[in-house]
Design a protein that fits this description.
It is a single chain. This protein is mostly helical and about 90 residues long. It has four helices and no strands. The chain is elongated.
Length: about 90
């Protein structure tokens, strides 16, 4: 055998970070699915595109606010989990 000890099952800071990253990715995907794309008619002029964006402003605003907020939460969690002391056997 290689002399490496097998990791202890259960809680670890790395698993928490990976799990949170996955939850954030799913949440952002669900927000992005709700975003509607403008069709050819709405892309034809700036006025039509502006009208489309005004109609869809709530969905785009939710996505625009969630991305940096979620990113800040993930970043803060990653820096705080580094400080968690590990159990030694």
């Amino acid at each position: 055998m290689s002399g490496k000890a097998r990791p202890e099952p259960g809680f670890s800071p790395e698993r928490l970070v990976f799990f949170t990253d996955a939850i954030f990715a799913i949440a952002m995907t669900l927000l992005a699915v709700e975003l509607k794309r403008p069709d050819e008619k709405e892309l034809a002029s700036a006025r039509a595109l502006g009208g489309f964006l005004v109609d869809q402003r709530d969905a785009y605003l939710a996505f625009a606010l969630a991305a940096p907020y979620g990113g800040a939460l993930i970043s803060r969690m990653r820096t705080s989990t580094v400080q968690v002391p590990r159990r030694r056997s």
